[in-house]
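Minutes, methods subgroup
Present: GH (chair), OT, SY

1. OT presented the first of two proteins processed in the latest run. Sequence and structure tokens recorded below as shown on screen.
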Amino acid sequence: MSDDHTLRIEGEFTIFRAMELKPVLFAEPPVTDIDLSAVTELDSAGLQLLMLAKKTAVAQGRELRLTGHSEAVIDVFELLNVAAYFGDPVVMGSRTKPATGGAARSSDGS
């Protein structure tokens, strides 16, 4: 942890790392910020732990913010459409759709 309430996760955030971090995420004092800027890989176990941490924080009436989303984190959040679950506008607005380079066509080709 980089300060009393921020947890910085580095490297792979996969099943084995998630098992290591679970006690840290639920220790006292509670984590208020999770810095994901150095995450190189995120699997379903890492995502589930983030979701559990968020759900627990909400149930306890406190905030939990995800910050510094790495490309790997954004890829998973977008693939699984979970950005809204965390309520993070940085992730939800992180990318724009690429231009198609041409005029839109209807399904009948016109």
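2. SY then presented the second protein from the same run.
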Amino acid sequence: MSNVVTKNPIVIDTVATSGLITKSITPLLAYWVGATATHDLSLTDNAGNLILKAKAVTGTDIFPFPPNFTVGGIACSVIGSGIVYLYVLEEGPYS
């Protein structure tokens, strides 16, 4: 599989250190499935600011974002295993 960035949820399963999403979005929830315990996940905005850093605990981990948490794009610098379903406020397309 490869990253799917045209619809909601955004599907991330491959590292992309430069903008998966280029415009500002408001993430609501990250749902990380199929991850191996102790594997890492890091999502950043396009300026390199960390917006989510996690270590898998179970095969399914859920990470809510604070209300009105708008970021300038999305990049994935680390995904050890599994798939992240990133639900966002806005409708696609996102680039």
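Chair's summary of item 2: The longest strand covers residues 16-25.
Next meeting: continue with the remaining queue.
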